[in-house]
Design goal:
By secondary structure, the chain is an alpha/beta fold. The chain has helices spanning 6-9, 22-34, 51-63, 77-84, 101-110, 133-144, 164-167, 180-193, 200-210, 214-228, 234-241, 246-258, 261-273, 278-297, 309-318, 324-340, 347-359, 367-386, 402-409, 423-433, 435-441, 463-469, 471-485, 508-529, 531-540; strands at 40-44, 90-94, 121-126, 150-156, 171-174, 445-449, 453-459, 490-496. It has 4 domains: 6-174, 3-Layer(aba) Sandwich (Rossmann fold), CATH 3.40.50.300; 180-241, Helicase, Ruva Protein, domain 3, CATH 1.10.8; 246-359, Zinc Finger, Delta Prime, domain 3, CATH 1.20.272.10; 402-511, GMP Synthetase, Chain A, domain 3 (2-Layer Sandwich). A 5-stranded parallel sheet has the order 2-3-4-1-5, covered by helices on one side. It has a 3-stranded mixed sheet with strand order 6-7-8. Helix 5 links the parallel strand 2 (90-94) and strand 3 (121-126). The longest helix is centred in the last third of the chain and has 22 residues, at 508-529. The N and C termini lie far apart (82 Å).
């Protein structure tokens, strides 16, 4: 028995099976149910999204022995004939092969006769835009005043090539590109039916290769099964469909955000070793950073991005510590590098230079925010001079709470200073030499700190622990520690309870946060107790909503 490809085996046979085109299915079903079926339809859209399948389903629904029905039974002889393509009253015509006026004249003459045993004669013309101008003219009169027993269904990927006289006489239905999530769901149904073992990530790679076309995706899936059999590995799919594993894109963006130049360039080396086109990879990296930008900027990115929920969660995790403006600046660097590759001899070098700039990119304060601060200072300066005698000479400092005192007095298990200085001085040393690494160190706690040994703890399960356990980051930190101490020093990165847990030493970030909270409370108390403020509140019968330090 000959093998039937999956695209034909799992071709939609009812409106309910027409994935991603629910708006078309609902409209056609309502038209059949209310008896408002037009004499001519135009189905437009990209390849493989269900235009011809919808035309066949419509033909079966109109000619079904139990119809016209909103769904064909697919069991009566008429439905089976249409499904098998041998109906004497439903004609599928290839517009690319029958472009001449003589072909259309023959169609026009045959349409006058009643159907042999069906309710309607239905003409399905695929790629109708390929007809010649004379052929369209010959069809025009029949299309304008067709016999009551004739229905026309035109399908095309290029509706702009049709004469306006034809367009105006058809009900037009625009078929959408099928969303990635729905393609993955359909592929999962097929794989379960065929007893195929394959992950959702691999199905997403196949669906993405289809680029919104259900038929192309199923055809690609068929090719994967021919290569892998009934057990499909993610790596085999990535190799076969010719796309870069999205994990590599994620690893490179993580390296950029953590300031790890070594890991970022190592990712490019791996891409080059695969023999993958560097410019094509740059375009995929641009798409990845575009996704990161949208996830960072929008509260509901799923409405914009055609991604699975698991992929969205991974993107959200990456942008947690990143500002939208910084992601946008990095994306701009990538776009510039890609545009320069069209006439460059060394595209890999351009991408490496762009990544190095992205790794070392420093956050900036927007100009408009700086101008606002200057304007605020200029506006408040005269009032500060006038009210100077009434103001306190120095802000009242709040007494530190018990928790604050515990943090400020807290010492590491070995409080002895290293030859290079204290723990705080070491963190400042890291910030000067390696800003990205120093920023991570601010979230670490010195469990043990001496000239010969340093044991640094990070909250378990945190981004900071994962980043510092990276071999490149740890090696860079060991080098900085040895430079700071003046000799070789042992370094250990450990996991410790989340911040605030009993017995866990405080990090510099926690101390800074506490100091900021104390400062805020001190300012709030100073403002609330100021006689002038109290008088204003009394006169206006108001209350303090928010206090901003200028």
């Amino acid at each position: 028995m000959s093998y039937e490809v999956l695209a034909r085996k799992y071709r939609p046979q009812t409106f309910a099976e027409l994935t991603g085109q629910e708006h078309v299915s609902r409209t056609l079903q309502n038209a059949i149910e209310t008896g408002r079926v037009a004499h001519a339809f135009l189905f437009t859209g990209a390849r493989g999204v269900g235009k011809t399948s919808a035309a066949r389903i419509l033909a079966k629904a109109l000619n079904c022995e139990h119809g016209p029905a909103v769904e064909p039974c697919n069991a009566c002889p008429l439905c089976k004939e249409i499904t098998e393509g041998n109906s004497t009253d439903v004609f599928e015509i290839d517009g690319a092969s029958n472009t001449g006026v003589d072909d259309v004249r023959e169609l026009r003459d045959n349409s006058r006769y009643l159907p042999s045993h069906s309710r309607y004669k239905i003409y399905i013309i695929d790629e109708v835009h390929m007809l010649s101008t004379n052929a369209f003219n010959a069809l025009l009169k029949t299309l304008e005043e067709p016999p009551p027993h004739v229905k026309f269904v035109f399908a095309t990927t290029e509706p702009h090539k049709l004469p306006i006289t034809i367009l105006s006489r058809c009900q037009r239905f625009d078929f959408k590109r099928v969303p990635l999530v729905k393609i993955v769901k359909r592929l999962r149904e097929i794989s379960d039916s065929e007893s195929i073992q394959i992950s959702d990530d691999a199905l997403a790679l196949v669906a993405r290769k289809g680029d919104g076309s259900m038929r192309d995706s199923i055809t690609c899936f068929d090719q994967v099964l021919a290569f892998c059999g009934n057990t499909v590995a993610d790596e085999d799919v990535a190799t076969l469909v010719g796309v870069v594993d999205r994990r590599l894109l994620s690893e490179i963006s993580s390296s950029v955000f953590s300031g790890n130049s070594q890991a970022a360039l190592e990712g490019i080396r791996r891409v080059d070793s695969f023999g993958y086109n560097i410019r094509q990879f740059t375009q995929e990296l641009i798409s990845h950073f575009r996704n990161l930008l949208i996830v960072s900027a929008l509260p509901k990115p799923a409405e914009i991005l055609d991604l699975a929920e698991a992929e969205l969660d991974e993107l959200r995790l990456q942008v947690t510590e990143q500002s939208t403006s910084d992601i946008q600046r990095r994306l701009t660097l990538l776009i510039k590098a890609e545009s320069e590759m069209s006439h460059a001899t060394f595209p890999r070098l351009l991408l490496e230079m762009a990544l190095l700039k992205m790794v070392t990119l420093q956050p900036v304060v927007p100009v408009n925010r700086l101008l606002d601060r200057i304007n605020q200072l200029e506006a408040v300066a005269p009032h500060l001079k006038e009210s100077a005698p009434a103001r306190l000479s120095e802000p009242t400092r709040a007494k530190p709470s018990a928790a604050a005192k515990a943090l400020s007095d807290e010492k590491p298990s070995n409080p002895e200073k290293g030859n290079g200085g204290s723990w705080e001085e070491f963190v400042q040393f890291c910030l000067k030499r390696k800003p990205a690494l120093g920023a991570l160190m601010e979230h670490g706690s010195p469990v043990a700190y001496s000239p010969d040994r340093a044991e640094i703890g990070f909250p378990e399960g945190s981004y900071f622990l994962t980043s510092m356990q990276d071999s490149d980051n740890k090696q860079a930190l060991e080098l900085l520690l040895s430079q700071f101490m003046g000799h070789s020093t042992t370094l250990k990165i450990i996991s410790m309870p989340q911040s605030g847990s009993i017995g866990s030493p405080a990090s510099m970030a926690e101390k800074k946060k506490l100091e900021a909270e104390q400062r805020k409370e001190s300012v709030r108390r100073e403002v609330a107790e100021h006689p002038l403020v109290q008088e204003v509140l009394r006169i206006l019968d108001g209350e303090i909503i928010e206090i901003k330090e200028l």
